[in-house]
Amino acid sequence: MSKARWFGLVPAAFAAVATHDLFQKKHSLLRNYPVLGHGRYLLETIGPELRQYIVAGNDEERPFSRAQRSWIYASAKGENNYIGFGTDNDVEDAEGYLIIKHRTFAVVDQPTANHHSETVDLPSAKVLGGPRNRPKAFRPGSVVNISAMSFGSLSANAIAAINRGAKAAGALHNTGEGGLSEHHRQGGDLIWQIGTGYFGCRDERGRFDIERLKDVVASAPVRALEIKLSQGAKPGLGGVLPAAKVTAEIAAIRGVPEGQDVISPSRHTEFRDCDSLLDFVERLASETGLPVGVKSAVGHHDFWDELAAQMAKGDRGVDFLTIDGGEGGTGAAPLVFADGVALPFYVGFTRVYAAFARAGLTDQLTFVGSGKLGLPLSATAAFALGADMINVAREAMLAVGCLQTQKCHTDTCPTGVATQNSWLAHGLDPAVKAPRVTAYLQSLRRDLLKVSEAVGVLHPSLITPDDLELLFGERHGVPLREVYGYEPGWGQLSPGLQQEITTLMVPETGEATANRH
After folding, report:
1. 56 Ramachandran zone, left/alpha/beta (phi>0; psi -120 to 50)
2. For labelling, which of 5, 160, 222, 473 has a CA lying 20 to 30 Å from the CA of 426?
């Protein structure tokens, strides 16, 4: 085609668009500004990308700033994740700026080699299920583990990459409430999450089926069960997996009809109150021998007070609590729920921890923190406040290639992470991305150990609420113990557990591996 004809087609195309715009009634902007109005919609569409790459500063974006994403990307790729010249944070004027207080002298000797902590194990200070004598109690080999993300919300390749990466890092991988798929079976140890839909362990009518659960547990490396009461980004809401994402494979895994919206109810049907919840917990533990825990965001506090009071009786109890913050992630949620329902992690976690501390139960269960904790500073604060382990979700997604385009709910994730579109998902190669998950987990653990060394202890669980402060500009700082109303001893392990984890972390004892499983 000649250049002249090409030049003739361009005005004709603009004329056609203008005619369409003038006569359509759906968009008033286009009727008033034909052709030109499309520029506005284009800018709206690519707005996140423009802000991400051109407009925003290093610390402006949410949920993860450019600086935070850069640290995760560099860590996952095994690149230099250090910075030069000094912090660009507004330390002088920021309100509530978190600071870790190092010690000049320490009562323990730490290794100081540059890369020593990249190869050191970082096990949990507590045995999961040990206090309640579960037959399959174990000590998790990593204090950093993969949080709940379902197959269906994430692609098959993303799930496979994360599970392989978790295996190589010695970390646990939570299945999410969507059931246990083949893609979870890449060798990594699993925590099977049981949601309100009982996916993967339900009968034809959607009711919980203990025999199906036991069959799946027997067929996979499931190390613990987690009952999901609510999720930080959409607490008390339930969930919806759109029909477009419900493939034949997902339908078979979940036990639901193919090609129809899958609804997760907002409440469980197997229990109605705290008393029946604990009966359900003990039933699962008795039938499987596994540790059993609960995941929940924090709203009204009466549930937590009652749970602590019931467990204080000693006959029933959960083995772990996963506390999610309202700032946690999700594949899809109404704006009001993501922005305004459920307490942020630090507020919610400290209130729950206090309920169990007052009852004298903090050594009797493992506390797991969840909700944007996959960065060294926020993770350190969680450990100081009493978390024994942390779970990471969106950070693991970033490690396998997520760009924070925030299109998880549209099934159009450009990097194939949060989609069931086969074309988009094929761009994510699990063999290439799995080592990045491993490297990210190892880097986070390395930095946690380096911070512990700076504070003068051997393990992040030995960091206390007095070792961190919130600064209010250059006027004054307040220790975390005072900020959250912790009493003396809260947020700290008992002397026996402190000695146990200290012994495990000293290489000369040779006990770190022997006592873990």
Report:
1. beta
2. 222
Task: Say how far apart CA 12 and CA 24 lie, in whole Å.
Answer: 18
The three-state secondary structure class of 476 is strand
Closest CA to 222 of 190, 246, 245: 190
Question: Which pLDDT score, from 0 to 100, does residue 403 have?
Answer: 80
Look at the alpha carbons of 488, 380, 504, 102 in this order and tell me if their dihedral is positive or negative: negative
Q: List pLDDT tens digits, range 247-280.
A: 888 888 888 888 888 777 888 999 999 999 999 9
Rounded to an integer, the average pLDDT of 442-460 is 95
288 touches 196 (CB < 8 A)? no
DSSP H or E segment with residue 324? strand 320-324
Pair of tokens at residue 210:
């203990």
pTM: 0.86
pLDDT in the model for residue 513: 40
Phi, psi torsion values for 241, nearest 5 degrees: -100, 110
Whether the per-residue pLDDT at 116 is higher than 80: the answer is: no
